[in-house]
Amino acid sequence: MPAHAPESAPAAEPGTDPLARERAHLTASRAALRAMREDVEALDIRDVTANWVNAIVLQAQIDDRIKALADLAHTPLFFGRLNYLHAPGTELAEGAEGEQFYIGRRHVHDADGDPMVIDWRAPVSQPFYRASKADPQDIALRRRFGYTGGELTAYEDEHLCDPAEAAAVSKLLQQEIERPRVGPMRDIVATIQPEQDEIVRSGLSGSVCVQGGPGTGKTAVGLHRVAYLLYAHRDRLARTGTLVIGPNRSFLHYIEQVLPALGELEVKQATVDDLVARDGLEVRGTDAAQTAVVKGDARMAEVLRRAVASHVTRPAEPLMVVRGSRRWRVPAYEIAEMVEELQKRDIRYGAAREALPQRIAHAVLVRMEQAGEAPDDRVQDAVARNAAVKAAVKEIWPPVDPAKLVLRLLSDPEFLALHAADVLTPDEQKLLLWQKPQRSVKSAKWSAADLVLIDEAADLVERTPSLGHVVLDEAQDLSPMQYRAVGRRCTTGSATVLGDLAQGTTPWATRSWDEALGHLGKPRAVVEELTAGFRVPREVIAYASRLLPSISPGLAPVSSVREAPGSLRITETADLAAAVVEACRASLAHEGSVGLIAADARIPALADALGAAGLAYLAPGEETTAESRLTLVPASLAKGLEYDYVVLDEPAAIVDGEPDERTGLRRLYVCLTRAVSGLTTLHSAPLPAALT
Hints:
about 700 residues, 28 helices, single chain, about 15% strand, alpha/beta, Rossmann fold, globular
């Protein structure tokens, strides 16, 4: 695989030097992109909008298009080139002329509309990721480009149809994967591997679950899948919406620039807590681990269903409807039949409640017709709004406030016991009850798990709107009730579920993807496993994988493709704080980001030590820069983040900071696998037995 990097060579004419020709194409492509943007900026909508509402909508669309056409100075406009043996879509005949395409983050065309850069998501771009010597896919040449900042500095060629050229690992590809990380997460569009590309380009109609160990790129795959689906199904997803769900705000801030870098600006991001948040309800309480496990159990859905349904009562008296001089009687047994029929139908409590007055009104209209009258739909609507009918419906099928319902379940032992009978044990019911009953919805000290219960109750009353596609990252940490909350947001859409069973760090972490997907409402989702690691060095992932038999027996360890001798250092020390400061200084001597990860309880002491040493540091979620590259990371927030160099403080304290040893070892596994280039582990207490 010939590589070319004549960065120090004198400038050559574009016609004689391949690198100069490619640079000329880059310059021309940037000019074409700038012209495309200027064309949009010059649009005058004053004569094409019917009213001010249309003008606002159209102007917003134009503004979004201008943002999508931004030329990011330090981001390569294209990263590869494909030379086809034959023009795509034509017969593979002898002598047929091939075509050449530049592959980049977005489509760019010249003044005549001819493409200068092809979007990586286009079908013609697919061989860039999947073609090989064994399956060249009609590609004569695949060229990869190397960049420094936004400047094209090198290229590397693969002649896929040349039997004399041996297959080899791309050095430019390896350099791009290993490039130091400063700032938010970046896209992997130039480095997508064949097995990742298959997941990225899978269809919209089906849901996909990706099990991937540390460094396999599952998060990036999920984000690029969203970008691909928006390209392939833009009209549909523009109507139904897309959403990326992450474990916490720090994580969302870390990934938030990936999709905009690919020209996608409309994808919303949220945590599960954001999804279930309700106006006027503030999370001010916390649950003990045992209580949180029960609140997150799928059986709570049945308890809530029973509690909501219990509000419906059978009518005790007939209903008399007065219209003018006539009185119309509907007997109690007939109303009871209406109620029973509505209860048997699979509709929400609120929808059935709205249907009942119409059923009663219809019964009155039948009697009117039998008496010789000719009522129409307006009469039926009027009867449904009759004061006597409304009063009867309120008595039989009263409105339900989801928050008040959950408040009563958690405060009233008899009410809870009535609806949890044969579902929860008496001990589990005791765990749910507040020690001090709360007086009102607004004054209650709700926990995060309580709001998930309220969200479930709200869906029983009124159906939650569904989106077109949802990406759920770090999914292994969700409780069954949280899965149900996410699943409600994609009942008519599809989902991409991303996670690693070995990194489950909550007491309720899922035991299997089949179980999780069942709670999500996507039991037929395809489960894919990524086992090739591209981020964590082989030495580091092998060390962390010693924990797998204890935390996730049977799960295949990640096989890292990265060799980095000397990337792992384990040191026992008596003066831990001083050793941590010195290790941070040594890590900062290298290029790239540095993360100091420690048990949450040790963060204040380490913050003091860094301050005393004059080392400035960031908190998770704050963007690293060339001037500020050290981040102090509580172990509870490390998941999903990555740093070039990691200093890991006192592994035993990380394990001891969790409710049980298994959860603690899983938390430690997460922390051990955040390093891209090097890991320094410092300890004064004995290491966990699983590591030694």
